[in-house]
Amino acid sequence: MLDKLEIEQPEWIESTSIEEVHEFSKKVGYPLLIRPSYVLSGSAMNVVSNESELDKFLTVAANVSKRYPVVVTKFFEDTKEIEMDAVAKNGEIIAYAISEHVEFAGVHSGDATMLFHHKNIC
Fold first, then answer.
1. Is 100 in a helix, a strand, or coil?
2. What is the pTM of this model?
3. Were 48 and a residue from 29, 53, 65, 100 both cysteine, which residue would form a disulfide, CB within 3.0 to 4.6 Å?
4. CA-CA-CA-CA torsion for 106, 109, 111, 114, nearest 10 degrees?
5. Shortest CA distance to 54 belongs to which of 62, 42, 65?
6. For position 31, what pLDDT does the model report?
7. 105: Cβ–Cβ under 8 A, 6 or more apart, which residues?
């Protein structure tokens, strides 16, 4: 959705090919955030800083295949992570929450300390 709305975000790919991930790493550089797509809520995410770490994660920790792609994102250090979630009814947002991670970006949501700002619209 962010791509469609042309909202700036770190470069990313979803890939089923180790070779494609390597091409992406050469294009955007390190560090990278790697997340297997078959896990829930971002568990098993890893930040990798070099090709050796990338290879280890892709071949050992993530079973990269047509069935199990990985999402690879350029990782920026010393940044904040902000999320927005909403509930809609008949196409209209009726409640939303904006959360800001207190820790730097890349801390798994289940382990992060967050500040929530919410509003009920209805």
1. strand
2. 0.69
3. 53
4. 100
5. 62
6. 94
7. 75, 76, 79, 80, 81
